[in-house]
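User: Assemble these into one structure.

Assistant: Restating your components, then the assembled model:
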Amino acid sequence: MSVLTVENLRVGFDAEHATAVVDGVSFAIEPGTCLAIVGESGSGKSVTARSLIGLPGKNGWVTADAIRLGERDVRSLRPNQWRGVRGKDIGFVLQDALVSLDPLRPVGKEIADALRLHTRLSPRARRAKAIELLDSVGVPDPANRARQRSGELSGGLRQRALIATAIALDPPLLIADEPTTALDATVQAQILELLEELKSRGTAILLISHDLAVVNRIADEVAVMKDGVFVEIGTAHQVIGSPQHEYTRQLIEAVPTGKTRDERLSITLSRVDATVLARVPHADPVPAGTTVIEARGLAKSFRRPDGSHHLAVDDVSFELARGETLGIVGESGSGKSTVARIVLGLEKPDSGAVDIFGEPWTAATESERRARRSRIGVIYQDPLSSFDPRWTVSQILTDALTLGRSTRPGSRIGDVEQLLELVDLPTSLLSRRPLRLSGGQRQRVAIARTLAHAPDVIVCDEPVSALDVSVQAQVLDLLVDLQKNLGLSYLFISHDLGVVHHVSDRLIVMKDGRVVESGTASDVFSAPQESYTQALLAASPRFVTT
Amino acid sequence: MTQDLLSRPAEAGSPTIERADATASAARNRFGRLRRIRPVEAVSVLVLAFLVLASLAPTLFTAIGPFDTSPADAFRAPSLDHLFGTDQNGRDVFARVIHGSSTSLLIGISATALGVGLAVILGLIGGLGPKPVDFVVTRFLEVMFAFPSLLLGLIFITVFGSGIVTSTIAVGLATAPGYARIIRGQVLLARNSGYAEAAVALGRSRTRIIVRHVLPNVLGPLFVLVTLGLGQTIVWASSLSFLGLGAVPPAAEWGAMLASGRAYIANAWWLTVFPGLFIVLSAVAATALGRSIQQRGRES
């Protein structure tokens, strides 16, 4: 008998019940199996998950022909009855454990809370059970960890602790909404293994994700969701092996792992063409093969709150030639972003130096650097925070174009429109503020801003890791197009080996501030020498079939 | 059969729906909501507009002067002739309250302006200056904070004597540390923000970043604080007058009127109720308006 049966689920947020965000979704989950709902932001997958625990959101309405938890019809439960269901019959795991766990309470207490609400265990028994649960989700040294707060745990441990709270009462169904999206690849692999193990113990899992490659690992059934409906549902093997729907194919296409730069990821063709490019501001052409950036023996340490020193970057050297892409791969804390900040001249290295076009860069003063800053651009992971929230797209781009010279507003509109065309955005966005743009649009505006001052080299610090897979594909394609046409050099930083391999000529792998491996992208990817690189590669999501 | 099950406000916050068209319509809704004026806002604006008008042109509302005495009419209860009654000297309370609004509002506004002005200077020096300067400013503010604000004002008056001007300065000084701390925090936030860093990476000078990014992002939220603070300053200024440290009778200032009416509170309630009502009204209107603007800022 199914753990959960849903028939014709509709969810919406308007008073008239006219437009549904989730529009007629039906599925069932058997014990010990995993159904994955895959789709992009806004497809309705998270709303579906939240509706199933009675929390559709503010002003939400839910209708359905049937929602059954086992035998029980849960459609007409009152709020207090829902509280009895949550935790006990359905466990819920959210994307970001840092915000889901109370930062001021030890994680052991959080787990014990679930037990206190639903069982009659004594406080002592609850504590013991909490430690036992932490142990069962693979947290090392659970007795001590139980006393730590969520902020003191690493991302992976935190997510394990959150899963422990969700399974504390041994619910027959676990709903996991993007449980691994915020995690490094190797940690993600561990969490997926944990979910797999829960599944083998008989728990039914509803997994929500935007990444087909991730769900491919543990899902028995896959439903592909778009605009509130399932465009395709079937066994994982069917859906991923022989996708029937165009959209599913698009999602599979978008996974960059194992594809070279010349293979396009997105089906949408970019409109970037020669006529646009010819009108784009160009820097003085730098001859091919010239060294653009040379970094020698970079080192940087930071002081920890307790006064001890933490070596963030330790003896890192590299060269970047014109028209080339150098990838830097590493997990959070490996020092790759510090390298980016040093290269951008935002952080001074303790020792070592960076030269740009053969001239000293980090050794120069800021006012000397300022004149040359236009030659080096930057794209951040989180474009939103890099925009002044009060400015519109038009203001952001005009400001970047004027480069310090004050120009009458409006006189640059023609150039601004060209920039937007270059990154394939409609001019209707000009009057919007960044907050009102989608993630992909924001990143495109960030790229346009950087292109405005015609840089020779762009430092890309995790430019696509905040994006859905299909949007990531479009942005990566755009970057590749721009490089081909403008002769740009990229310093491309990412935690995702698949992405870095896709865009890079050469790459270096960083761990704990040091370079552990370097070489051409294809060499490192096909025959990694270091065990760390091998682990990264193994953890990188991809399809077994390709 | 389709059945409606959860058409009630849910317990948690709204989920984000990021579909392009959904975002567009959400933006439209939001603008729609922005244009719609809430009753609270309408009332607050009306009250404030009335008070401003009363201070600028009191004769529009009353033909009687604030100091016109008529001993024969002393202690008249509110009636059609004397809306708010008359006091011990037969002066019309309504006329005095209306004429008094200019003094009270002027004290409130100039004290707020003084406090904010001082705070902007301190906050900017602390937020933008080198570390040692910031250290000094921060410690100074902490010392100021150690005193209750009104006490700080009282100390100033004790040293420089009472009167309208000194009480205005006193209230201004008393409010400055609070604003300064907020401004310093905002400056630091903006200075260390991603967009300030992006501007550095674009090759912008420090001055330009401060003028184009830091200042606008700091002063925007400040506007709300000022509106909120205005109500408080009016109350404080009136309190000082009530204590006889600001405006003194026979001046038609609300706090001073309250003080002189206190002696007759048992048999002439209108002497204290109406000036008090105006203090409350102006403070509530300014506060409600400030909150309202704050809320809108959060929503958009």
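Residues 280 and 418 of chain A are 7 Å apart (CA to CA).
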